[in-house]
Specification:
The chain has one domain: P-loop containing nucleotide triphosphate hydrolases (Rossmann fold, 3-Layer(aba) Sandwich), CATH 3.40.50. The protein is about 30% helix and about 20% strand. It contains four helices and six strands. A hairpin with a 2-residue loop joins strand 2 and strand 3. It is globular and about 45 Å long. The N and C termini lie close together (about 10 Å). The structure holds guanosine-5'-diphosphate (GDP) and magnesium ion (MG).
Length: about 160
């Protein structure tokens, strides 16, 4: 059985861009609009010796009753339940939001292996702008740029080597 990696995080942090980078596909819709991906997406990924399945989240089709945040929470829960390891993506440029704290709290309680990943970190001096993310209580912050393909190999290694 291939390990399963779930990408979770609030809208617009770059989950689908990372999904595309990991799967080298165009399966996940990437757009300049938050929440355009229609559904959870599954993709196959192979990096070095690691073969794994990636789940993108963010298919928010909020109904009048549920709303966008409830739908997001539902998708996140489903993906995380299926996953062996969770990549929790935050925005290195946008900083922390209330939603980040909510997701972090949920992931801490769950206790699944989680790699806290600050995306959009291209050209940033690591350690300086990323210190605030330690407040999430999920340990080390892993800086990447999904769009520029930086930090991806070591992210995969960090996420999958312990499994
Ligand atoms: P999602 O809503 O979390 O799936 O985010 P998307 O993957 O759709 O990306 C949201 C926006 O962030 C898009 O405009 C992307 O081009 C942009 N983005 C994604 N990754 C990076 C990155 O590494 N650096 C920068 N600067 N922008 C990025
Ligand atoms: Mg998306």
């Amino acid at each position: 059985m291939k390990p399963v990696m779930a990408l979770v995080g609030r809208p617009n942090v770059g989950k689908s861009t990372l999904f595309n980078r990991l799967t080298k596909s165009r399966d996940a819709i990437v757009a300049d609009f938050a929440g355009l991906t229609r559904d959870r997406h599954y993709g196959n990924a192979k990096h070095g010796k690691h073969e794994f399945i990636v789940i993108d989240t963010g298919g928010f089709e909020p109904t009048a009753e549920s709303g966008i945040y409830m739908e997001m929470a539902k998708q996140t829960r489903q993906a995380v339940a299926e996953a062996d390891v969770v990549i929790f993506v935050v925005d290195a440029r946008g900083g922390l939001s209330a939603q980040d704290y909510d997701i972090a709290k949920y992931l801490r309680k769950l206790g699944k292996p989680t790699v806290l990943t600050a995306n959009k970190a291209e050209g940033m001096t690591e350690g300086v702008q990323l210190t605030e993310f330690y407040e999430l209580g999920l340990g080390e912050v892993h800086a990447i740029s999904a769009a520029h393909g930086q930090g991806i190999r070591s992210l995969v290694e960090e996420a999958l080597a312990p499994l």
